[in-house]
């Protein structure tokens, strides 16, 4: 009978009987807890990344703002060109005003010479011409009447320069007042000194109102010669007054009306005839 081989006896650890205690001492945290702790460490390091992203966003926003401001700011060349244009417009407007005065003076001289020539030989014809000149607006007139003033709303232009067209007096508003005054018995009318004739046009050009191609601005003063009391009562009873009240309530456009004992309206100058021919 063979003898089985001898095996080397296993050496036992001194603390083998305390395996559980040893495991707890060597590995105080469960693997799941260790993994959770590692994730928490990662999250605590993320704010640094967020801060970097925030700084980059602020830098990009600053650069974009600077770029927009630089693009919107006019260059010195543009500013200089605009100043030149403004000076040219001012000079030409002054020249046009002077030409208008010269035309008025020439028309007055022609009218005086015409009256002198006709006074002795054709007094009846002279009276007809004078009456027709008043009716057509060619001759200057004076007398009592009614004054209607229209003014843009106080907030028609914002602080940034934006214009609200609805809160500004428009050509249709002036046409409404003028037509109502004619219907109320006005004998002669002017707007800011511009005499209305049979061929006068009241139109808008952008934010400006043109009367016979002359630009006017608020406030718009409409002078009407006629019987003051009759004009006042008939104009107040017209539909134009109701529409003006709506403009004030809805858009802030103000209207004032008052009678005047004396008004002086300049003549509109001689009319240019295109189709009319003199009577035989």
If you had to describe this structure to a student in words, what would you say it looks like?
With 280 residues, the protein is of the alpha+beta class. Among the domains are: 26-72; 140-265, Protein of unknown function DUF881 (Alpha-Beta Plaits, 2-Layer Sandwich). It has helices at 19-26, 31-72, 76-121, 123-136, 171-183, 228-236, 239-251; strands spanning 141-151, 188-191, 194-195, 202-205, 208-211, 214-216, 220-225, 254-265. The strands form two sheets. A five-stranded antiparallel β-sheet has the order 3-2-7-1-8. The chain has a three-stranded antiparallel β-sheet with strand order 4-5-6, with helices on one face. Strand 2 and strand 3 (194-195) form a beta hairpin. Helix 3 (76-121) packs antiparallel against helix 4 (123-136) and helix 5 (171-183) packs antiparallel against helix 7 (239-251). The longest helix is centred in the middle third of the chain and has 46 residues, at 76-121. The protein starts with 18 loop residues before the first helix and ends in a 15-residue tail after the last strand. Residues 1-11 have low confidence and may be disordered.
Q: What are its keywords?
A:
280 residues; alpha+beta; Alpha-Beta Plaits; five-stranded antiparallel sheet; three-stranded antiparallel sheet
